[in-house]
Amino acid sequence: MLQLPDNFPDWFSLNWFSPSTLMGMEWTRPFYLYLILAAPVFFLLFNLLKLRFRRKTDIALFESKPIRQWSSLLRIIPSILFTLAIVLVLAALARPQKTSEQVEQYAEGIDIMLILDTSGSMELKDFRPNRLEAAKKVAEDFINGRFQDRIGIVVFAGDAYSLAPLTTDYDLLRANLQTIKLGMIPNDGTAIGSALAVAVNRMRDSNAKSKVAILISDGENTAGNLDPTIAAKMASAFGIKIYTIGVGADGTVPYGTDVFGNTTYVETRLDETNMREIAQIGNGSFFRAENQNALQDIFKTIDRLEKIPIKETRYRNTQEYYPVYLRFAILFFLAWMFTKNTFLTNALED
């Protein structure tokens, strides 16, 4: 018995002949569809030849003008029924099908902790609109490119806090990123060691295949009571790889505007030594980003380095619908057989 999906009409519904239904089918033997186009031409030629060569009987009739009755048009009904039956048989031979495919993706996700500096120096405008907002935008793009990875967020200035735990709720992560702003941590400074310690504390009990911390900062450690190298050694002991990204250009960079609206500048210089040492101890890499394009490229590099292959399982279900059109063909053929025994046909010709 033909089983139809819920979104398909019953087999006797005329919706089977709607353009949307026919166009949605996959015809595995399209050759028979071309024969359907030829069927009306064939029957037209057949009837013309039949009319030309059929035998005629001479009958003497009174001279009069023949009167045509509308009922004589009913005699074409058997031919129409037979033609439709043949067309539907050809449609069934074309093997209409509907294939549904379900794709399941899975991967052994990794744990990633984003550690973002929110100190006052992140307000510098060598990035647009400033260093912090540029880092947030690139971090969001990084999150959007991950699949089944748990990601968390740590923010720091003079103190460090866990903003978001490790989670695969990427909507939550994006919402938390939008809440990050300059001055959100009252105690200003750069507590890199404390930030790494908070990240380690969040990841130490993780059983993920790979654990990664990405530290984004523009300065050296100036706050907190934990040396960054000690924190990096703790991370290494728990199998956490550390990537450090130093943001900002050296030299004179725009800072803001004065009371007259003029741009103000400050001298800045990134001390790479400490950041490189942290990355080395954490078995990772140090990157330097002096502009937003470089920062984007760095995140793309990290994304490639820490990408776990995504595996797919595909399930294909093919449903045959030729029985529907075959049933219609049988109905029209039986109707044609029935009309053969009625006034609609000429017994002398058949």
From TrEMBL:
* Protein name, UniProt field: VWA domain-containing protein
The VWFA domain covers 111-302
Q: Which organism is it from?
A: Adhaeribacter soli
Q: List residues traversing the bilayer.
A: 31-51, 72-94
Metal-binding recorded as keyword: no
Q: Which UniProt keywords apply?
A: Cell membrane, Membrane, Transmembrane, Transmembrane helix
